[in-house]
Model the fold of this input.
Amino acid sequence: MAASVVNVLWQVLSRYVLGSPSSFTDELARYLLVWVGLLGSAYAAGQRLHVAVDLLPGRTGRLRAASTLLAHGVVTLFALAVLVVGGGGLVRLVAELGQHSAALGVPLAWVYLAAPLAGGLVVFYALSDAHAEWRRISRRGDTP
Done:
């Protein structure tokens, strides 16, 4: 995040103070935003800071446990299918084609690697939370 702030600050200074905008800062800002956004969402999922909608307020027992496990399953399948498999396929394709970014010259596979990496973290955290929920309801004898 600090790198993004420094990058955008340099972009503004070079454009308005020096009168000659830097050629790489716009591209770097976009790529940093992708990485910070995807890894930040994985971190939020791991810390349970993500947006949640309580569909069953005040409910306990089997219905709530089943809905919690279902939600973890949906998140796991989405992250696995879209981020890990889809993102991994994109990384592989771009790496095989040898594409590089225009201004920075970095391989685009490194840029797109954020998606499967974040997806793997989301899957890990969702499965970990589902396992903890399963153990919690198993101890109470509430198994759905």
Residues 2-140 form one domain. The radius of gyration is 21 Å.
